[in-house]
Amino acid sequence: MSKKILSLLLVIVLIAGCNKQKLYQDNLEGVWEVYKYLLHNVDKTGQFQSQHPNYTITFTNDGKFTEFLTNPDSAYVYGTYSFTDNDEVIVLENTYNTFALDTAGDTIYTPHLIQREYTIFNLTKDHVQLRNDTSQLYLDKPEL
């Protein structure tokens, strides 16, 4: 009897975990803008917005994200996201390349994987707070 109860509880926990991840993906889907930025608990919103004008991050329902950065040139960062720590942490992963010339003058491309982790707070369809050891991003969806 106790094995059946334990098995049933395990199935319920797995279903609840999948539903939570699906809810998070549904709520994250869309374009987000930073409306408040804290660095070491000091409001640096103006500095962030002047260094990264028109910054957005877009999440898709299939685990991908795109960041739009401007400083001074515009650039897009493409990557994937996943959840860890019982879906309390979002992990953003992207790759960038560095370039160097070898002794023959050929270009060598070296890929670098970047992983950024943020604890998720107050996630709704139009608001989320992402916090790491040094910063807090408060994001909302722009009105269309």
Structure overview:
This protein has an eight-stranded antiparallel β-barrel with strand order 1-3-4-5-6-7-8-9. The protein has 144 residues and is of the alpha+beta class. The chain is built from two helices and nine strands; from the N terminus they run H-E-E-H-E-E-E-E-E-E-E. About 6% of the residues have low confidence. The protein is globular. A hairpin with a 5-residue loop joins strand 6 and strand 7.
Largest sheet: 8 strands, antiparallel, barrel
Low-confidence stretches: 10-17
Whole-number average pLDDT?
A: 87
Cα separation of the termini: 56 Å
- The percentage helix is 10-25%
Strand content: over 45%
Q: What is the strand tally?
A: 9
Q: What multimeric state do the chains show?
A: single chain
Placed side by side, the strands forming the largest sheet appear as 1-3-4-5-6-7-8-9
Order of helices and strands: HEEHEEEEEEE
Count of individual helical segments: 2
Gyration radius, to the nearest Å? 19 Å
